[in-house]
Amino acid sequence: MNRHKLLLFLLLFACVGITNAQTIRLLNMNVRMSGQMVGYNVTPFANYIKPYDPDFVTLQEVDFRTERNGRKDFTNELAAELGYFSAFGYAIEYQQGEYGVAILSKYPIEKIANNRLTGNPAEMKESRTVLYVDVIEPESKQKLRIAVTHLDHSTDGVRSAMVQQLNGVVGAAHPVLLAGDFNAHPTESAITTGMSSWQRICNNFATFPASAPKSKIDYIFGKPAGRWNVVTFEVLTNTASFTDHCAMLTEVQLSE
What we know:
The chain is an alpha+beta fold. The protein has one domain: Deoxyribonuclease I, Chain A (4-Layer Sandwich), CATH 3.60.10. Helices cover about 20% and strands about 35% of the residues. The strands form 2 sheets. It has a 6-stranded mixed β-sheet with strand order 3-4-2-1-12-11. It has a 6-stranded mixed β-sheet with strand order 5-6-7-8-10-9, with helices on one face. The protein starts with a helix and ends with a strand.
């Protein structure tokens, strides 16, 4: 094969690889005590999410039938308004109900796994969890794992222990997107060491508080590292009317 034919072949191969890569849109949001700022009503969240048309939504600070939210199932109510599938991950018992994280998916969910995360009891404020779901991306038929967590706000040591456990349970059997409120700044060891095997999808723009962001504590990561092409990433600062965190929106492609 001469040089001109070789270059043409490589160009065609590259174009095929780009064409076949699936595009995934993920939106992450801490919903502030399951909608405490809007009377525990899911509708403002549904109205906010719909225009972005994400494939997946990862949520933190989600209530399930607590006293404060009027015994509502926030996850399923929001999923019903959006027409999505859903999974809730219990972290702790709270006010006669449960408190944790959730995932909404456009696509049917094949597997749900919820795994408790703990740390030094003398330092830890609350046990937390990492929730993941496995889905089949309909165009590529690729199995994906979508995960969400909300780490404890106590110490870097506790968060580092939780991240170590998270890495063990999420694994790398399938390509993974992980999002959540890590309660950790980018220079803390929970991020620099604990998440070093992950590809950073997000930037270091501040995400908290939503009204005037000053701290970077919310993140999106991917595995395997190096296989995620970040088409777009944005910290959304238009959330202050219903939550105290900025949302994050990304569009990524998984390379072959």
